[in-house]
Amino acid sequence: MLQRLAQLSSALLLIAAGHIAAQDGLSPGDAQREALRQFLESNIVASESFDDRFDAEVWLVDMSARLTRYVPDADSRLQLLRQIHAAASRSSLAPELVLAVIEVESHFDRFAVSRVGAQGLMQVMPFWKNEIGRPDDNLTDNLTNLDYGCRILQFYLQREDGVLHRALAAYNGSSGRRVYSDKVELAWREHWRTSNLNWSD
Description:
Shape: globular
Strand content: under 5%
Structural class: mainly alpha
CATH architecture: Orthogonal Bundle
Number of helices: 9
Largest sheet: none
Number of strands: 0
CATH class: Mainly Alpha
Number of domains: 1
């Protein structure tokens, strides 16, 4: 059922991109960017994610121990983990996958800036703020950065029919190569794995 829903979402995104291209005379690449812009604009929201207190405590205690090497302060760790879990859940992503992406992207440094200007935990490019009409958003704010990053990764997972390596390569801007996605998979396997993810192509 979940796989069917993912396939349906992916098909709708491709149809939307095709419609945008035909309607506005855009190239396929520009149409994909416009589809992602519209997806972000309609999905950047805030909410809680844990429904069961026991499940929350088990997950938070487990992940907090794993995160200690990056975030020494216990209160900061728990706050960050709650934020990550919420953003991942809203985007239908495994929180452990998001943790692996953050480890590779920024090593949990909210003020990290890449050589091309990507910012924050999930290394989001600032131009997306203007693209979706939110120029005042602060990408060094964890909640904001996680919302953007998780929604962008969700978009690419839907577009790539749930194939993690292809979606991660698109997220990183390295489509057609496996270096980045292999790093994320390794981080997930060594540090964050709690249950299986399908890494097969």
